[in-house]
Structure formats: C-alpha cells, structure tokens
Write a structure and sequence with these properties.
This protein is α/β, with parallel strands linked by helices. The protein contains 14 helices and nine strands. It has two domains: 185 residues, Rossmann fold (3-Layer(aba) Sandwich); 122 residues, Arc Repressor Mutant, subunit A (Orthogonal Bundle), CATH 1.10.10. The longest helix has 19 residues. InterPro entries: Class_I_gatase-like, DJ-1/PfpI, Homeodomain-like_sf, HTH_AraC, HTH_AraC-typ_CS, INH-QAR.
C-alpha cells in the first residue's frame, strides 16, 4: 500500500488529516483480524530520507520511499495535493503524474482522497469515469477536467480499479471500504469498532449532512439504532423505531436522514446486508438461517438484495472470503 506524500515542507495542518487516515487504517498491524496485514509505504515527491534516519518517532515527511516505489504497489493512494494546485492551477509536484501513470499501467489499484482526485485526473486516470472529491472543490475539478464525470454528492465512488472519495471523514469511509473489499466485512467491521467509527457508510450516501438538529436535543438516535442492530432478525418498521425513540414517524425519518444521509429503510437494509456478510464470512450457516438472522428473509430475497447491492450472489461472496478464525465472533460488530 503506497501512499503519496506531495508536500515535505510547511505542510498545512489540515492536510495531515487525509494523510493520517490511510496511515491509521493500513499502517498498524492487526494480526488478530488478518495476518499478514498491509505493508504501508509513504512515498514522497522529494528527497528520500536516508536509511539511517530516526525510526519509531512518528511521521517524517522526508520519506524513505520515493515516486519510483509506486510501481509495483498493489494500491496507490493520493490523500491530497498542495492547495495552490487546486486553487490556482499550479503544477503538481514534478514527476508525480508520470509516476501515477506507470503505477496504473503496472496494475495498481488507484485511490484518491479529497483533492487527490486532481492528481488522478491530471494523469488521465479519471477520463470517462465517475469520480468525486470534497464538494468545495468538485466544480473546479469538473471545469478543469471535462472528461471526468464529477459527482459532487456522494461519499466515495468505487469504479473497480480507480476509487475516489470526498474530503475529510469520507476518506476514512473509503479506506474502510477497501478493507471490506480486500479482507471482508467482518474484518472491516471489527477494525471500525476499534476506531470508534461507523462500520459502513455506503459510497452513495450524501456528502451533504444536515446539521440543523439542535445540539441540546436529548432524544438522540444512538440508542434506538443500537437496539435495531441487535434485533435485525425481527420485522422492523419506521413506525417501530420511531415509537421506540419517542418520536413521530415523520420526525424520526427526518432526523435519521439528517444524521446519516439515508432513509430509515435504506439504513435498515444496509445493516441487514452487513450482518449477512459477516455471517457468510464467519459461519457455515445455511442461506435459510442467514436470511433469518439478518432479517433479509428467504434465500431468494437474500440473493436478490446481494446481487442488487453488492453485485455478487451470497454463495459467490462466501467463496470469495475465507471463514474467520474460530475465535472471531460473527456477532462482534
């Protein structure tokens, strides 16, 4: 996993956030979840750090690896590019664009977070593709690169071998999505739990989260959503959840959509699919039992939702991910 570091001097503090996301998700070994874990390498656009430099002291922006090391990586992530490259159209760091092209041509999966999309677009890797970035910059991205199908509303776009995300926390959503793709839902859910973040926000979820719910409101949705996750094997309706939250269905609908960017029914479906994925990975239960425990119903209904939302059948999904170790609980998320 090669992460591009585009600035080595006077790095704006806000740019460290996007850089820290892949470092946090992929950089710390999680041997009890998956072994081997990812081999993370920070690849700078400038001078390499000498091998006798300090070790174990945190982040050094004079990196040990350079742009040549992007070739041969399985995945290349561009967390951001310098602000002048976005705001003023300044050139990208020398050598970055051809290095990205060589990495893609060698078979790397290419990923951008936030303004990193400008680097992938400049390399021509987004031509004819749907892509996103932070909504503050999508208009500039679309104007500068008219061949890119810019979507300013979604959290992230998975186009197979090229993936892009919106800014800030959406970058974390995309990185967890990569773990989910690579190692399965169970591992991604457990990692998200350790990071104290939502296990899965679908890429199509809206960037625009309405924050108008008063901060002093004491009727938070957390407890009722936790209760719903614990009762996915039961029939649940918006009216059931609203009643448990002591809200009218209309108010519950509005607050859940404001908080999550999705409707209550879609939120429930996402939770049920996540439970089914975890059970498929970590148990040998029959499709009938998995449909029952996840609340997705009959095997035919389970298959229908998997094909529509995930793109593969439950049987193919189970074959794609090996069964978790016996110590791993399928209900741990």
């Amino acid at each position: 996993m090669a992460v591009v570091v585009t600035e080595e001097i006077d790095v704006p503090s806000w740019d460290l956030y996007e850089l820290s996301i892949p470092c946090t998700v992929f950089g710390k070994p999680q041997p009890d979840l998956a072994d081997p874990w990812y081999d993370l390498r920070l690849c700078g656009t400038g001078e390499r750090r000498s091998d006798d430099g300090p070790a174990g002291t945190g982040l050094s922006l004079r990196t040990r690896f350079g742009l040549d090391d992007l070739v041969g990586a399985d995945t290349v992530i561009v967390p951001s590019v310098p602000d002048p490259c976005v705001e003023e159209g300044a050139p990208l760091p020398p050598g970055l664009v051809p290095a990205l092209r060589r990495a893609y041509d060698s078979g790397a999966r290419m990923v951008s977070l936030c303004t990193g999309a400008f680097a992938l677009a400049e390399a021509g890797l987004l031509d004819g593709r749907r892509a996103t970035a932070h909504w503050l910059h999508t208009a500039q991205l679309a104007e500068r690169y008219p061949k890119v199908q810019v979507d300013d509303s979604v959290l992230y776009v998975d186009d197979g071998d090229v993936l892009t995300s919106a800014g800030l926390t959406a970058g974390l959503d995309l990185c967890l999505h990569l773990v989910r793709r690579d190692l399965g839902a169970h591992v991604a859910n457990q990692l998200a739990r350790r990071m104290v973040v939502p296990a899965h926000r679908p890429g199509g979820q809206a960037q625009f989260i309405d924050l108008s719910v008063p901060a002093t409101d004491d009727t938070g949705l957390g407890p009722v959503l936790d209760w719903a996750r614990a009762h996915l094997d039961q029939p649940l309706t918006v009216e059931d959840l609203a009643r448990r939250a002591s809200l009218s269905p209309r108010t519950f609908y509005r607050r859940l959509q404001a908080a999550t960017g999705t409707t209550p029914l879609q939120w429930l479906l996402n939770q049920r699919l996540g439970r089914a994925q975890s059970l498929l990975e970590s148990t040998d239960l029959t499709m009938e039992k998995i449909g029952e425990l996840s609340g997705l119903g009959t095997p035919n209904n389970l298959r229908h939702h998997f094909l529509k939302q995930i793109g593969v059948s439950p049987s193919d999904y189970r074959r794609a991910f090996p069964r978790a170790t016996p110590e791993s609980s399928p209900h741990g998320s």
